[in-house]
Write a structure and sequence with these properties.
Blueprint lengths: L8 H4 L6 H13 L1 E3 L4 E3 L2 E2 L5 E5 L5 H6 L5 E6 L2 H11 L6 E6 L12 E7 L8 H11 E12 L1 H8 L18 H10 L2 E9 L1 H12 L14 H4 L3 H15 L3 H11 L3 E8 L7
Parallel strand pairs: 4-5, 4-7, 5-6, 7-8
Antiparallel strand pairs: 1-2, 2-3, 8-10, 9-10
Helix pairs in contact: 2-10, 8-10, 10-11
């Protein structure tokens, strides 16, 4: 039986990053994120010049870097003024896309109905008080045919991290709920969206995060609930895991092993959904 060979770091244009960054990004690309040729943020979610893209909970803007110049207009929205400033600093001056930065407090989004043609909501719903209200607002803002890219942490990795991370990591303002795959589908469909696909990704990141939280005392980060990248990137144990994963991906069956680990202990579950205008009979 022949197996597809996983593209290498040079093939993906990632060889300029540090080891952990490039292996993590390589893993994301192999999972379906950030396809330069097709303009897909994730497989099935492509951007074009006519798109108005809303990124709800944009954080410091990492995924939006890929969207620069691909969407005609970008609306970057977050409830944290400090991280929104980081997003603004990262994105401003890098693109011909029109970018608006919005600070939002609570689920209400101060945008007219049918503003966006594409909506991203990545790793947000596990933080909010009322995910159903949030999804309802996102549906209101999407136009007819609007495509949605929504992700939340997967319960398989979350249950492991609950044993390793500080208790506060599963309290406000961090993760306040663990969302089961069937519940995730019900939430999205309950908002009136039609699910196109549900994918499980990020086995590499699940193990990476588990190792990180098992070592936070050794790293001098006792009680810290998030990954401090500058420290994590320098840690020899985390670097060893990244090197091991890269070696696996370089191997003959690397891509098949990745698919297996992603299904066993995914970091995230990803849904692509579409808003369709109800017919008169509905």
């Amino acid at each position: 039986m022949q197996f597809a060979e996983a593209p290498g770091l040079v093939d993906l244009g990632l060889d300029h990053l540090n080891l952990i960054q490039r292996v993590g990004l390589r893993d994301d690309v192999l999972a379906g994120f950030f396809n330069n040729e097709s303009g897909e943020v994730f497989k099935g979610f492509a951007l074009n010049d006519d798109d108005v893209l809303l990124d709800y909970g944009c954080g410091s803007g990492g995924p939006l870097e890929f969207c620069l110049g691909r969407a005609g207009r970008i609306i970057a929205l977050d409830s944290d003024a400090a991280v929104l400033d980081q997003c603004r600093e990262l994105l401003n001056g890098k693109t011909t896309s029109s970018i608006d930065f919005m600070l939002a407090d609570g689920a209400f989004i101060d945008l007219p109905d049918e503003t966006a043609s594409k909506v991203m909501c990545l790793e947000v719903l596990e933080h909010v008080d009322d995910p159903d209200t949030t999804l309802s607002e996102l549906t209101r803002i999407g136009n007819d045919g609007c495509l949605y890219l929504i992700s939340v942490p997967d319960p398989r990795s979350e249950e492991v991290l609950k044993q390793l991370a500080p208790r506060a990591a599963f309290e406000k303002p961090h993760h306040v709920r663990i969302i089961q795959p069937t519940e995730f589908r019900s939430m999205v469909e309950g908002a009136g969206l039609e699910i196109q696909s549900q994918t499980f990704v990020g086995g590499f990141s699940s193990v990476f995060t588990a190792i990180y939280f098992s070592r936070i005392d050794a790293l001098g980060l006792n009680g810290v609930c998030s990954i401090v990248k500058e420290i994590a990137y320098a840690d020899p144990v985390l670097s060893a895991w990244a090197k091991a994963w890269n070696d696996i991906l370089d191997g003959e069956y690397g891509y098949e092993i990745k698919r297996m680990i992603d299904l066993m202990i995914p970091k995230s579950q990803v849904i692509i959904a579409r808003k369709n205008r109800p017919t008169l009979s509905e």
